[in-house]
Amino acid sequence: MKITLRIWRQDNAKSEGRMETYHLDGVSEDMSFLEMLDLLNEQLTASDVEPVAFDHDCREGICGTCGVVINGSPHGRYMSAVPTTTCQLHMRSFADGATIEIEPWRAGSFPVIKDLVVDRSAFDRIIASGGYISTNVGSAPDAHATPAPKREADRAFDNAACIGCGACVAACPNGSAMLFTSAKITHLAMLPQGQPERWTRVKSMVSQHDAEGFGGCTNVGECASVCPKEIPLESIAQLNKDLIKALFKADGK
Ligand code: SF4
Ligand code: FES
């Protein structure tokens, strides 16, 4: 395949960015999107041009590190028949001769560090504010010592699938991280182990979400449409239910 790439280049967090055009030949339709960028970078390096910086780690759709806006949609969602991460998108989703636009996540709370790499440490701070359970140390309990009803266990599992990629924020016109935050909250709220801190957790995580400058949710739903792990909007409803209960709890816990 021959393709034309229009890529956001930005030297550092303080510099102005610009779209640059590159022509790439010899792309296999079996290459992943990141392998195609590797090929571009090999050619740029050979021509003494600074390679394009982009984030990646597992390349298996697990770690959530990769993530760019492709032809206007996070992870190229509308190029693929199924929800996917950037690393699991393949070049067979594009036509020979196509022009592909690649940009970093666009959100005030995810500042660009360089080219396609953004700072997503705001997510780490939301997790640190309450996305955990406290438990006594000691030997591991038996697997079934704390039974969890099947329905709740399944919902916990579905929400635990969130990989923290940030596509939901990049897609949201409000730059809201409510889908991410609600996945973390719902995951723990469905499990017995998450109950002792359930009400303080939701208040603390939502407050950290707001402090990081993410916008509010207005039920647009674009977040769930692009989420590679299909976290449902219902999780945001669960967050709102828990938040209201927590705010009205007499003991403040
Ligand atoms: S909710 Fe989905 S889109 Fe948002 S961070 Fe988690 S996996 Fe990524
Ligand atoms: S590189 Fe890990 S999810 Fe894409």
Give the overall silhouette: elongated
Name the ligand types: iron/sulfur cluster, FE2/S2 (inorganic) cluster
Spatially, the strands of the biggest sheet line up as 2-1-5-3-4
Question: What is the tally of beta strands?
Answer: 7
Give the termini separation: 59 Å
Major sheet, described briefly?
A: 5 strands, mixed
Task: Give the helix/strand class.
Answer: alpha+beta
**What level of helicity do the residues show?**
25-40%
Helix/strand order: EEHEEEEEHHHHHHH
Low-confidence stretches: none
Question: Tally the helices: what do you get?
Answer: 8
- Strand composition percent: 5-15%
Q: What is the CA-atom radius of gyration, in angstroms?
A: 20 Å
| Average pLDDT metric | 96
3D architecture notes:
The longest helix is centred in the last third of the chain and has 15 residues, at 234-248. The strands form two sheets. This protein has a five-stranded mixed beta sheet. The model has no long low-confidence stretch (mean pLDDT 96). The N and C termini lie far apart (59 Å). With 253 residues, it is of the alpha+beta class. The protein contains eight helices and seven strands, in the order ββαβββββααααααα. Bound molecules: iron/sulfur cluster and FE2/S2 (inorganic) cluster. Residues 162-168, 179-180, 183, 227-229, 231 line the site of iron/sulfur cluster.
